[in-house]
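Q: What residues go here?
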């Protein structure tokens, strides 16, 4: 196990707590392995009827993967970089297919890898402090950890909008997009956890009933219909339903409203190559099973740090912090279609794929 994942069983519930608040609970390989080990152990333990996962520190559930490690490992040619993604995606899959109720308390920052360990949950609870995003295009990556799959299953073209822009959304948006199940204020969330810990549960359904009873009392406090995504839905669908990223950018660039101007400005700062790769990913994912989509993501990630913008994007955001990435290519009109499609070529034969064993 690792010092950054605390495990405890109380009253029939297994509690997983990410305890790396100084890094906003960003996931390391050791943390991925600790989470996997605990889930495997509890799946086989009749004394554990449900699992609750949360982040310590009050600021973040989980801000993603450890991008500083990604940068260092990529430059060093460290094979543990590839292994990280193999094991992380296997963990994401395990959560989606977990045999017992898995509940994610998505309080604070929930981004990237944090979405990967929460979107497969039976209940996904958000609070007034939730800041949710798949911001990978901002660092030269794409929305992985099953992101293509779950973004593709949001209403209309919200998946394309969230995946390409990487914009942060909040509780009402998450509920509207189907990326959360219920709203519970952060103070009430603490009370819910305390009541769960004081209980003794004989079944996972009892745990879910306790959570649903709590969240039902707060339903009126967060209206998905009043969310930014709901207000901009027509514009989002009309824009992000376009055939290409170039067309999407042209639409928002030609419009004069504030939302279009902000969207155009955001897209112009993202990696042109990874914008095109991400659009292709989400649209392919709409007709894919989760297992196939995760295998596709591993194929894509194999290329990101070798031929893509991943190293440069992380350098600009987190290492040198100059926020001036030198994307290759620098312009959308320079992105070649064959370079985009190359990300979807697998370096492995199907039977030798590291995620070949994932089953529905």
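A:
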């Amino acid at each position: 196990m690792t010092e950054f994942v605390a495990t405890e069983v109380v009253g029939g519930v297994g509690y997983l707590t990410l305890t790396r608040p100084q890094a906003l609970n960003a996931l390391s390989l050791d943390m991925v392995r600790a989470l996997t080990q605990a889930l495997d152990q509890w799946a086989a333990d009749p004394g554990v009827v449900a699992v609750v996962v949360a982040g310590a520190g009050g600021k973040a559930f989980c801000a993603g993967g450890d991008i500083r490690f990604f940068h260092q490992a990529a430059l060093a040619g460290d094979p543990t970089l590839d292994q990280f993604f193999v094991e992380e995606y296997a963990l994401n899959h395990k959560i989606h297919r977990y045999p017992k109720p898995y509940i994610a308390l998505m309080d604070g920052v929930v981004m990237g890898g944090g979405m990967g360990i929460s979107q497969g949950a039976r209940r996904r609870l958000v609070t007034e402090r939730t800041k949710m995003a798949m911001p990978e295009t901002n660092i030269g990556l794409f929305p992985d950890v099953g992101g293509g799959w779950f973004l593709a299953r949001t209403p209309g073209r919200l998946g394309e909008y969230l995946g390409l822009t990487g914009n942060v959304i909040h509780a009402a948006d998450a509920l509207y997009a189907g990326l959360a199940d219920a709203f519970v204020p952060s103070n009430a969330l603490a009370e819910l956890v305390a009541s769960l810990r004081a209980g003794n549960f004989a079944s996972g359904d009892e745990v879910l009933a306790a959570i649903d009873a709590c969240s039902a009392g707060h339903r009126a406090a967060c209206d998905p219909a009043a969310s930014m995504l709901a207000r901009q839905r027509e514009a989002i669908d009309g824009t992000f339903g376009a055939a290409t990223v170039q067309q999407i950018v042209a639409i928002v660039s030609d419009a004069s409203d504030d939302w279009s101007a902000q969207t155009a400005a955001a897209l112009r700062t993202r990696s042109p190559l990874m914008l095109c790769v991400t659009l292709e990913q989400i649209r392919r994912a709409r007709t894919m099973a989760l297992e196939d989509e995760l295998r596709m993501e591993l194929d894509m990630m194999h290329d990101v740090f070798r031929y893509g913008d991943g190293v440069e994007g992380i350098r600009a955001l987190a290492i040198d912090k100059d926020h001036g990435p030198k994307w290759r290519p620098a312009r959308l009109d320079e992105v070649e279609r064959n370079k985009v499609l190359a990300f979807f070529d697998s370096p492995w034969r199907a039977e030798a794929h590291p995620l070949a064993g994932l089953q529905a």
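A: Context that may help when evaluating the design: The chain has one domain: 5-352. The radius of gyration is 20 Å.
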